[in-house]
């Protein structure tokens, strides 16, 4: 069991005490970092101001290397398989734009796929003559594995599997979808942006070729951080679409040599303070016990999934069989933006997910927007109940 008091004490954004404090339900957007993350970032920025960025980074070389070790420990990967970046989208695109495509090739995207992934797929399809097709969903809303098996052939070069979407509690059967994609030799790129930090991820079990995630959401790291995982053989063999003097070495007037591992997908320049902060966030999660944290998130989301439908006019919009910590809903007669703003006036933070972020799924269901509540382990059940009461009062 997680020590709730410790977790809250470690989180400056949680204010306990007399009177209603803030209720923070946006860890799917940008979470509240634990104190150690902010302290790590600020301390490094201070150090840079004292001795310059190069010397400050050199003092922290071991800690910087440790960032990948910590991420690897979380997802069961070797540090050599991790490339750090500044966002999940950057990492996703770094891999996606490096997959060779030609006219007639097929790219499959998940129905719940994120807009940035779909836009990139459409752009490359236009440029190469490949096609982009949607993987159908089954009656529950998750990837329809039978339909996927019927859809794939040897022209499918890449399958974009969305682990957990931005707009609701769906969790896709990623390992099963990966096995189907691999049966025809396609590469699988898993968008784990909304699962890293709140659901167990074991890349060996999942079998994916690559995985992208961000720092600021469920991992509670700083903004402007993210990472890419590559299957070890790919980390050693794949040519990135773009290189610099960190991803490759200039070995002669006409030649260069790629870095021997996933770091070939990184550029040299980076936000060192942010990376150290990401390392602190992942180490903090490992120290708390990831499975305890995941269970605490699931319990909070389930609490909301029980309470919200009891309010007249409120509909929970989560799809799928397994659920993540994202609870999305609509309120009859009250626009999602108004719901968000009226809750914000009571210091309750939720976000709105608009159709444009997950176009295929939302238009398929005739939804323009949903309100998204995403409680992390630091949110108290009393706070959840305050949120539910505030939602109930919206239509009064
Ligand atoms: C937020 C999100 C992204 C993008 O993450 P960035 O760090 O903003 O690039 C990608 N996929 C999903 C499912 C997301 O929710």
From TrEMBL:
**One matching Pfam family:** Aminotran_5
What keyword terms does UniProt attach to this protein?
Aminotransferase, Lyase, Pyridoxal phosphate, Transferase
Q: In which pathway does it act?
A: Amino-acid biosynthesis; ergothioneine biosynthesis
This enzyme's EC code(s): 4.4.-.-
Catalytic activities = S-(hercyn-2-yl)-L-cysteine S-oxide + AH2 + H(+) = ergothioneine + pyruvate + A + NH4(+)
Q: Which GO terms describe its molecular function?
A: transaminase activity
Q: Which residue stretches belong to region Disordered?
A: 1-21
Q: What sequence ranges are listed for the domain Aminotransferase class V? A: 23-387
Q: What residues bear N6-(pyridoxal phosphate)lysine in this entry?
A: 217
What enzyme category does the UniProt record give?
Answer: lyase
The lineage's top-level taxon is: Bacteria
Known cofactor(s):
pyridoxal 5'-phosphate
Q: What does it do?
A: Probably catalyzes the conversion of hercynylcysteine sulfoxide to ergothioneine.
The UniProt similarity line reads: Belongs to the class-V pyridoxal-phosphate-dependent aminotransferase family. EgtE subfamily.
Under what name is this protein listed?
A: Probable hercynylcysteine sulfoxide lyase
Say which species the protein is native to.
Nocardia abscessus
């Amino acid at each position: 069991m997680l020590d709730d008091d410790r977790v809250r004490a470690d989180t400056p954004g949680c204010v306990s005490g007399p009177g209603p404090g803030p209720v923070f339900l946006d860890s799917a957007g940008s979470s509240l970092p634990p104190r150690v993350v902010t302290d790590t970032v600020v301390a490094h920025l201070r150090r840079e101001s004292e001795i310059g960025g190069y010397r400050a980074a050199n003092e922290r070389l071991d800690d910087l290397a440790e960032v990948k070790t910590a991420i690897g420990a979380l997802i069961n990967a070797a540090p050599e398989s991790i490339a750090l970046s500044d966002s999940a989208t950057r990492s996703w695109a770094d891999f996606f734009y490096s997959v060779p495509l030609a006219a007639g090739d097929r790219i499959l995207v998940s129905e719940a796929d994120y807009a940035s992934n779909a836009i990139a797929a459409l752009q490359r399809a236009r440029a190469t003559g490949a096609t982009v097709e949607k993987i159908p969903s089954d009656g529950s809303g998750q990837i329809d594995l039978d339909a996927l098996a019927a859809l794939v052939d040897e022209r499918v070069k890449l399958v974009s599997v969305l682990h957990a979407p931005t707009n609701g509690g769906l969790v896709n059967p990623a390992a099963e979808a990966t096995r189907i994609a691999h049966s025809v030799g396609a590469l699988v790129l898993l968008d784990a942006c909304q699962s890293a930090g709140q659901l167990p991820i074991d890349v060996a079990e999942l079998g994916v070729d690559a995985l992208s995630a961000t720092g600021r959401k469920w991992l509670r790291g700083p903004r402007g951080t993210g990472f890419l995982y590559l299957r070890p053989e790919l980390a050693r063999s794949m040519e990135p679409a773009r290189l610099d003097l960190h991803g490759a070495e200039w070995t002669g007037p006409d030649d260069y040599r790629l870095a021997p591992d996933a770091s070939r997908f990184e550029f040299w320049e980076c936000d060192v303070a942010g990376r150290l902060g990401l390392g602190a966030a992942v180490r903090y999660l490992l120290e708390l016990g990831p499975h305890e944290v995941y269970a605490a998130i699931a319990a909070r989301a389930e609490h909301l999934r029980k309470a919200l439908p009891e309010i007249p006019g409120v509909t929970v919009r989560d799809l799928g069989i397994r659920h993540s910590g994202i609870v999305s809903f609509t309120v009859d007669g009250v626009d999602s933006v108004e719901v968000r703003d009226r809750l914000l006036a009571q210091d309750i933070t939720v976000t709105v997910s608009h159709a444009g972020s997950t176009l295929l799924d939302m238009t398929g269901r005739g939804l323009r927007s949903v309100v998204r509540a995403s409680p992390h382990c630091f949110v108290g059940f009393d706070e959840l109940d305050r949120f539910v009461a505030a939602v109930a009062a919206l239509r009064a």
